[in-house]
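Margin note: ligand = zinc ion.
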Amino acid sequence: MHGILTADADLAREGVGDRSYYFTERVSGARRDPVEGVVNSVACWGDTETVRESPDRAAVTGGGTRAAPDVESHHWGTVCPTDPDYRAGVLDRIADVGSVGDVRLTTLGFPGEDFCRCDRCERLFAESDCEDRVEWRSSVITDFTAEAAERVDGDVIATLYPDPYPGHLQERAGLDPAALAEHVDGFLVPLCGTGYETTYWVESLARGFASEVGDLDTSLTFQLSTSGTQAERLAELARRLDEHADGVVFGTHRTDADLIRDVLAELDGRESSVVA
Ligand SMILES: [Zn+2]
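Resulting structure:
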């Protein structure tokens, strides 16, 4: 499967390749109507607007650092995953979007190893049967994913942070791929870079994910960025990723659409305007 991932609703509707992913609800807090016939993506805990309006709803470390966009290594605000009102709201939004078809969940999980140590999370962990926080955080995210999946008519695709080293996803975000695989139909992993001057890291990560989740009953898709990359390089990279995955999707702006059509034609072995 080769497709695109875009914030342009018209481009998503036009369809470039086998499948289109559309940014329906983004980490900025911006929300738009879902598009039929595509995979609509919903940002779960990433919501800069909510964190700006109510900073105390952000996930927090034991040292008091909030998951806000002005904090180093955080590019957006992240709401605490046990905030009951927010959680109910996300599930409602997933149900709305999921009534149209397939849904991709983004910002699924805690925003880092040290989150969340708010009073509510501390209490819920203490009341749980979990032996450690890693186990408890995974149970929070897996339970949420199970409830989300029940609300979606189509497939559910979970986005994974690009770190396939065994145990890291669970330690970092509370994402346990084997547990999530009981509820989702596929995983999507962003492997984004500008220009892809070197590609060994992309292949290493792809191979790692194939080892970690390849045996699960879920599809595995990699996301590549398009900006600043030649068509030939993208086609070559996608061909190599195809060895480890069920699909590759290209982040695509309207201005990149012709480039991606050329890449897809090249991958399909059709005549294209790609020049060596
Ligand atoms: Zn919390």
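The two ends are 24 Å apart (CA to CA).
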